[in-house]
Amino acid sequence: MAKTRSPSTPPAPERVAAFQTGISAETRAAAFLMAKGYRILARRFKTPYGEIDIVAQRRKLIAFVEVKARARLDDAAYALTPRQQQRIIAAAEAWLVANPDHATYELRFDAMLVAPKRLPQHLPAAFDASP
Questions:
Q1: Domain 13-127 belongs to what architecture?
Q2: Is 41 in contact with 85 (CB distance < 8 Å)?
């Protein structure tokens, strides 16, 4: 007797809402960066080590940007944990391997804080890759 595959269960509504909020926040953050003169090189760059929300370039600078969306900007500021920072650094290294022509650029790890009805807040050099 052949097994029948049960239909996959849809994701929980709160997970769908969180995903949509994240996509919206990343779109707002990317638009804000472009208005500041950055060129978006990648969005949601996935690696086995982690994901980079936005990779942006301005002149000879590459910014790896983590976007944090919360109800309040203060809450967003505290949402970037040391473990996440390490995953972003590892993902940035993978991005540089895939994009070696940018290896000589200045590298920076930024954060973009996004809250409803507020302009995104860009935090250049929010953390560094030093051990």
A1: 3-Layer(aba) Sandwich (3.40)
A2: no
